Description:
By secondary structure, this protein is of the alpha/beta class. It is 46% helix and 13% strand.
Amino acid sequence: MSQFIFNNIRVVLCQTSHPGNIGSTARAMKTMGLHRLYLVRPKHFPDGEAKSLAVNAADVLDTAVVTSTLEEAITDCQFVIGVSGKERALSQQVLTVREAASEAHQIGINQQVALLFGTEMSGLSNAEADLCHVLATIPANPEYTSLNLAQAVQIMCYELRMSITEGKLHYDEKATTLATQEELELFYAHLQETLTHIGYINPNAPKKLFERLRRLYGRTRLEKEEVNLLRGILTLSVTPKKHTRY
């Protein structure tokens, strides 16, 4: 289902001036699972700089669709999100990119969605914004809201992926085996014995200090291997060291 939604979402760049931004956009898209790139009247494309900055996302560039008008790029879309940091006198509903990503997720289940970005210098024009259903903005430092085009694409695509995948990692975490209570009690006994041996604990009144140590280790949820490691250290700490002869 996730991949089906990604297939229904495209990134549209309007009149991009620098080919490097196109390549960086392709890379940003691919890392987040998107692959449909539309370019409206790019100044330079195809271009070697774009391919260089795409790194291993050249396939996104190879399948990019170049159009002469924005209308052509979004003609079959049911929902268009314009990503813009401009404050406009009259505009559509303005959402944060996180809110917009949630909308794109829901609509993208069975309809076509476009994420629209304007030029590097001035962003979306009023005419381009008028073709959008909603505008999305990236909450930023009000004293300096300027973002590189590819950075803006990355943030929007990241929020979209977080919404679609519910933030699940792209790999399975290594399974760990926690220590049993019996293993923990053997470790605590070993620890108390060692600390008493080296004079750190008063054998006549060990309770208060040792209770703190138990709580400390209890909070860490020790794994079986970690208990074995710690007990190895305790064993070595009370075993006389052999002198190495040179």
